[in-house]
Amino acid sequence: INDCVGPYLERGLEALRDAGFLFVSYGDVGKAQKALNHPAVTKWHLTGSCATYNCLVWGKPTAPPRSAGTKPSLPPRIKAVTGELGCVTPYIVVPWDYEPEELEYAAKMLASSLTHNSSHNCLALEVLVTCKSWPQREQFLEAMRKALDDAPPRTAWYTGSKEKYNNFTKSALEHLTSSVEGSKLTWHGGSADRRLVIKRDMSDDDIDMNDPDAAEKLMGKWTADDDLFGPIEMQLPWQFASGATPEAARKMGVLDNENWCGCMTEVALDCCSEKDRVKRCAKFVEAAARFCNDELWGTLSCALVVPPGVQRNSKARASVETCVATLRYGTVCINCPTFVGFGITKLTWGAFAAGQWRKRGSDENTDYDIRSGNCWSHNTMMIDDVQKSVLRAPFRIHPHAIWLEDNRNLENTSQELVKHMGRNSIGSFYSTLVRALKG
Q: In the record, what terms sit under GO molecular function (predicted)?
């Protein structure tokens, strides 16, 4: 990975590098192990996957069961191994009466949560949690597909992306489209004309969905030589599996494995039949919090879409506040992507309660089952004993939100924003605002 991003890290952090505080290493696992085991090293901290953490602590990608009676055999000089790791990140869409433009805006925000960094993030949207009985659900899903249609595909640069992508397709074909009524698997990227709706009977495309190589053949059709974007290596469309039940999602493996490759699943909770929108909202957010806490792997971050109507209704707002308090995640973002919570470094970032909370009898967030990690990062205010950070944003941001996929001046605005964070002057604020207005 450093071969790809290392030069950018060195350029962005050259002040630390030149002062001798930072060194970016290039090479294989062996070189990294030599650096970690240097006699001068007394602590290890990493961000990455739980497999990386386990390789450091146990010497292999998986931890042994506690019943084996083994303990980490770290060098005596190593005082601590801490990690900020991964998560199957959920986004909860609160059911209400949305205006058409509100549905469109929410869909754009959610699409950006998937496409950011080609979805190679521990905070990328993985599971979209909705209410099955929500009258506007189908309208929302179509807005979601339209937002993904408008998002050009990006290069999947992370190692193993294509394999993960194909595995997602195969599991969706096996456990979703073949068994759950009303479910869909769609591919998106660049325009509505490129949308591909994948069903079990793809006779018109001469591809048998029972073929073990169906995913590979579909990809071949997507990246044909006459394709709109040309035969760009590893440019994967956005993949959206909708209409999954919790049981189907569990069989697909998306509740306990990060996709990390531009794929997401909508899980529609059949949790209430209430006609009254306030009661429906209350029952859904309670069920959604329970589902996320109990079914999804990891506790790093999550987000909620809360429309203005809910915020104006005292009973519905109270239900959402209870949901936020109940969610066991280190960062909870309301009406903005989780990567915004990551970017505000005054907030804590890490597993719920820095990995110190766990169910009775569980090994969660310990060396035996490290999951999202065992520490806080960021927290520049250095506040102790934090359970979670909660970030609230207006439903719509003006000027055009910097995190939206269709922001027209993202690069220039981002550069000025970083300068403002360093200078914190009226001049830098004005310069940032001018560029933001052009987004």
A: oxidoreductase activity, acting on the aldehyde or oxo group of donors, NAD or NADP as acceptor
